[in-house]
Amino acid sequence: MAMNLAQRRYVRRLIPMSAAYVAAILLASSVLPKGASASPATIAIALIPGLAVLGVIWSIGRFLTELSDEYLRMLEIRKALVATGLTLSLASTWGILELYTDVSRVPIFWVFPVWCFGLGVGALVNKLTLGDAGCA
Amino acid sequence: MKNRLKVLRAERDWSQQDLADRLEVSRQSVNAIETGKYDPSLPLAFRISDLFGLPIEAIFLKD
What we know:
The structure holds two protein chains of two kinds. Chain A is mainly α. Helix content of chain A is 77%, strand content 0%. Chain A folds into two domains: 68 residues; 67 residues, no CATH class. In chain A, helix 1 runs antiparallel to helix 2 and helix 3 packs across helix 4. Chain A is flat. In chain B, helix 2 crosses helix 3. The model of chain B has no long low-confidence stretch (mean pLDDT 95). Chain B is built from five helices and two strands. Chain B has a single domain, classed as 434 Repressor (Amino-terminal Domain). Classes of the chains: A mainly alpha, B mainly alpha. Chains A and B meet through helix 3 of A and helix 3 of B.
């Protein structure tokens, strides 16, 4: 299926943002020693992937704004809602376990990757319930 | 919501893609509306109405 203008713009925005996210993580993991204390330098390095995440979410937001096809827009919004619900639910459940039991701690870093995985789950939910996964 | 989109499209010998192109939406949208999985917004319903030259209530039917 040929991509519409909104999809092409989305891909053009998402690829550099995602690449920046991965590059920022690689940079942080190679530059920051384990157990380093928080300092302006370490915070500055940690901010880079955080800004890249904002860039990814901005790309998705622009895509939803520019996508003129209302059905495809609904599919994309459903994906984001499934991803958000899944992530917050998992975080809340595990958070309670961390507070009150002896389960191992999961780095909060994983919230965004889990949310991205949730987009895939959302696409599956769309496919199973409506027959169309989405368009992105 | 039930609709007569498939019949109206067949009368004109249009494929789903033909109708999608005329409405400037995706083929998935046409399929979802035809199969009753998705009810179009009022603006899109008016576009469909204009395209077929029929009132909305002659295309979309109450369940």
